[in-house]
Design brief:
Layout (H helix, E strand, L loop, with lengths): L2 E3 L2 E4 L3 E5 L7 E9 L8 E5 L14 E9 L3 E5 L5 E5 L8 E2 L6 E8 L4 E6 L2 E4 L18 E3 L5 E5 L8 E5 L12 E4 L8 E6 L2 E4 L3
Parallel strand pairs: 1-4, 2-4, 3-5, 4-6, 5-7, 6-8, 7-9, 8-10, 15-16
Antiparallel strand pairs: 10-11, 11-12, 13-14, 14-15, 16-17, 17-18
Length: about 210
């Protein structure tokens, strides 16, 4: 039940914040972290439950608000089993959460992910909204049926009806589709003619214009 405000953490940082046993319901806000040297191969701005990562021993219900993270951290977050934690990065090019055990439930929001196409949002370790399709999945987690990715680029977006690469997707955008596809996927073109308004993936990675 602690509140940490307006901190400045600079240097060769392993974990900017680390919460382990007996550390529920904390708030850390307006924190600036700068990894200057990064001689540590597993550095992160926040680490949760590293001592026993497969068991939820605590480190739950923590709100991280307005984290300004720069430098050369190996990961933005390193997480063991934990739940109900929320992370809000103000200016962080979000790369990949490193999950070292369990199936942590958490939310992540950043306004500067993937070169600023928009906000990316994770809920309970699953992607809810992504500004760009190049965002790598969270380690030890996969996309699931119904997860959305908006937009794959600045001009198109998709909803996955199964895990990418194994289930079809429903997409739309400008121009003919160029992304890889699973048979059964559909693409709706906003600038198409009568014969190119809709595309169907009829063979692996092969889009065919099928009209309206």
């Amino acid at each position: 039940d602690n509140v940490f405000e307006h901190g400045l953490i600079v240097g060769n940082i392993l974990c900017g914040f680390e919460f382990e046993a007996n550390s529920d319901t904390n708030v850390a806000e307006y924190q600036q972290m700068f990894e200057m040297e990064n001689s540590l191969p597993a550095s992160a701005s926040v680490c949760l439950n590293l001592s026993d990562p497969t068991q939820d021993i605590d480190a739950d219900g923590i709100l991280f608000h307005n984290l300004f993270v720069t430098g050369t951290f190996a990961y933005p977050l390193i997480l063991g089993q934990s739940s109900s934690n929320e992370f809000d990065f103000t200016d962080q090019v979000y790369q990949n959460v490193h999950v070292i055990g369990g199936a942590p439930l958490f939310s992540v929001k950043s306004d500067e992910i993937n070169s600023g196409f928009g906000s990316d949002l994770y809920r309970n370790g699953r992607i809810a909204v992504a500004a760009s399709g190049v965002l790598p999945p969270i380690s030890k987690n996969t996309f699931k049926t119904g997860d959305g990715m908006f937009a794959r680029s600045t001009t198109s977006g998709c909803i996955f009806l199964g895990a990418p690469g194994s289930g079809p997707m429903l997409c739309g955008g400008q121009g003919a589709p160029t992304m890889s596809c699973v048979v059964g996927s559909q693409y709706y073109r906003s600038d198409g003619s009568a014969s190119t308004l809709r595309y169907s993936c009829e063979a692996s990675n092969t889009w065919i214009a099928v009209g309206p």
